[in-house]
Structure formats: C-alpha cells, structure tokens
Amino acid sequence: MPDTSTGLVGLPFPRENKYAAAESAVVERLRSGRLSDTNRGPAIQSLEDAFTDLTGARYALAFNSGTSALHAALHATGAHPEAGIAVSPMTWISALTATLHAGSFPVFCDVEPNGVNLAPAALAAAAPGCSAAVVTHAWGIPAPMDALGHIDEPVALVEDDSHAHGALYLGRPAGSLGAAGCFSLQDAKSVSGGEGGILTTSTRAVYERALTLGHHPHRLQAELSLPDLRPLAQTGAGYKFRMPVLSALIAREQLRTLAERACVAETNLAVLTSTLADRKAPITAPELADGTRRGWYGTPLTVTEPLSEPQALRAAAASAGIPLRPMYDDWVKAPLFQQPDLLRQLWPHVRLSPYAPPEPDALPHYYRARRQTLVIKVPMVAAADYMHAVGRTLADILNRHLNP
Ligand SMILES: *Cc1c(COP(=O)(O)O)cnc(C)c1O
C-alpha cells in the first residue's frame, strides 16, 4: 500500500522490461557471426523505413547517436563559420555543441514567455546572422513550428526530436516539421537502441549531404546521386557515424510498442494532473492545441506561484520519492561558452566567427522557466495507483513549501 502517513510516495517507479521483445532478434543476429553492415543492411533498412512511416518524412538515415545526427543535419543544411545557428539553452549540451561540430557556432535565444521552447520573436531577432536553428521539442512539448517558420528572414529549422518520438504538431508528426529532424535513441529516450540516432528529411540534397558525413563508402556508392556529391562516393568525410546493427534491431522492437506506451503514459499523466487539481496544488501541465500530441521524456509542469527557492523544492520532492528529471545545467554560464579561448581550443574555426558569449540578462524567460518548471517522469506502463500517490505527495509538498 502507498504510504499515506509520512508524505512519501511509498511506491517504486513502475518499470517495464523494455528490451525483452528484442531478445530473439538479437540472439539470432549474434549467431550469424556478423555484426557490422557497411551497406544499408536489413536491420538498418527496417529501422529507417519504420522512421519514415512514423514521421511521414521521405528519408530516414541511421546514426550512432542523436549528437551525430544533429551534426550531420547542420552540415547538410549549410552550416559555416561566418553564420551562427540559433539555439535555445533549454536542451541537452550536444544540441548546442553540434553547431560547433558542424563548423558554426551557437547563438543563444530565449524561450517563449509561457513555455519551454525557442521563442519565435527571439529567433526573428537572431536570424539575420544565422544559417539555421536547432529547435528542441523540450520534454516532448512541440515547439511553435509554424511561427518559427514564418519570421521575416526564415532559416533552416533542424528539429531536435530526442524527446518527441511519436509527437504531433497540429496534426503533423515531429520529424517532418523542418528541413531535418534528429532523434536520439539513447537509453533514456522513449525509443531506445541503447545508443543511436535517426535523421529524417524530405529533401534529397539534405539526405545525401548527411550521408557523406559519416557513412561507409559502400553505402555512398550505392546511394549518392547528385552530381556535386558523387565525387565523395569513394571517401565521404570519413567520420564513423554508422549505427551498430544490434542497436537498430533493439530500437526497431521498441518502436512497435511506442503508440501503445504513449497512450498509457497519457492516461498516467491525466491521473496525476487531476489529483493535483483536486488538491488545488499551484501547478499546471502545458495545454496542447487540438491535433498536437506530446512526446515522452518526462513532462514539464509549471509552478504557478513565484518560487524563490526552486532547489529546496526540488530536493524536498526528490527525497519524498517524486520521480523528477533534473533540470538541465545552465549551459549559458558554462566556461565553454563564456570563455571564447576554450571554444577556439576545441574548434579553431571559431577564430573566423563573430561568436559572442551569451548574456544571461537577455534570456529572462529561460531563467523563469528554469525556476518554475518541475519535470516529472511519467511511466509508460499502467500505473494509476502510483500516479495518484505521486500527485497526492507533490500537492502536499507544494502546499507546504509555498504556504509554510
Ligand atoms: C539525448 C539528447 C541528445 C543527444 O542524443 P545522444 O543520442 O545522447 O547523442 C540531444 N538533444 C536532446 C534534447 C537530448 O535529450
């Protein structure tokens, strides 16, 4: 029974045995004695085809991580040292450093006044000096892609879909909303191969340019068709970004159950939000428009009363057993971005760039969102009792913390 007396959740986080379905495919492949395909072998092909089905994009290309998929997407959309790439700092570090991997640099932009994603107004201000933007659908909440695409001087939008497998924005799937989409298949993501990444695009030139960066010459020989890229068929760029075959088999099995697991998670979140509302807890979940569906990587809840000590609240919640994802580190203030000498040590091309360190004062909504957001991990297996216990405990903590 959940512990109701001491203000603890009192139940363990409900876990699934998420890799069990892949066991027979993995064992069969191990017995084949061959674990590396240089061409587009059957395991990679099956996973890539499943991602074109999921997203509706014309092409999907497997990578060994979400980071390398982002690197390739930014290269493929024309990154260069003289123009920056607009980013919101509310993301994982590699969405920021991928701009540098691709030979450009990050231009930090604020998030929406009432949200967690890149703000169209901030992108409009930065766009004249940028070739592209990385748009993370933070914690699965779809970014305002229409407004981001309708600024005066539009830039290529590269989606970071690492939290948004299966998400929809106004009826259209994440991964089909920009010039390219990039999914991480790392263990914590809702579709996992252990490690891995997928790039999606409907533009042949983006697909082929991404292919040249990190895939084997066998695959380049078979697939490069554009006259300006054909001369790269013998070598490519020689980075090694191919997805291991076993990761592809595992991720393929995970994808089969994504829709069902997302549905269960949606029901779990509804139990949590109704428990919080019944107890008048000062916290809300983002409202999604009709036809918009969240992805799953924890879900962000906004504390609606000003929080002076968010760290104390998070610590109290974590020690009561609330399943929190940690807030991202504040990359804005990290030495890497504040000390251009460090950037130039790692990426000499930054010498050719008009890079300027980000100014925290220019990012008020980012700092508001950092302070007021709690990210809750929602199980993808049926867990009504657990979610009810989490809701009851979190409501107690919020009410105590805000009205001591
Ligand atoms: C996980 C993640 C990445 C990086 O993906 P890897 O597969 O770990 O390289 C990039 N962006 C976001 C938002 C992520 O959550």
How is the secondary structure organized here?
Elements: H1 23-32, H2 42-55, E1 59-63, H3 66-76, E2 84-87, H4 93-101, E3 106-108, H5 120-126, E4 130-136, H6 145-149, E5 156-160, E6 168-169, E7 172-173, E8 180-184, E9 197-201, H7 204-214, H8 217-223, H9 245-256, H10 258-278, E10 283-284, E11 299-303, H11 310-319, E12 324-325, H12 335-338, H13 340-346, H14 364-372, E13 373-376, H15 384-402
Parallel strand pairs: 2-3, 2-4, 4-5, 5-8
Antiparallel strand pairs: 1-9, 6-7, 8-9, 10-11, 11-13, 12-13
Helix pairs in contact: 2-9, 3-4, 3-7, 10-15
Bound molecules: pyridoxal-5'-phosphate.
**For the report, how would you describe the main beta sheet?**
7 strands, mixed
| Share of helical residues | 25-40%
Give me the number of helical elements: 15
Look at the structure and give the mean pLDDT. 96
Offer a few descriptive terms.
globular; 15 helices; 13 strands; binds pyridoxal-5'-phosphate; alpha/beta; seven-stranded mixed β-sheet
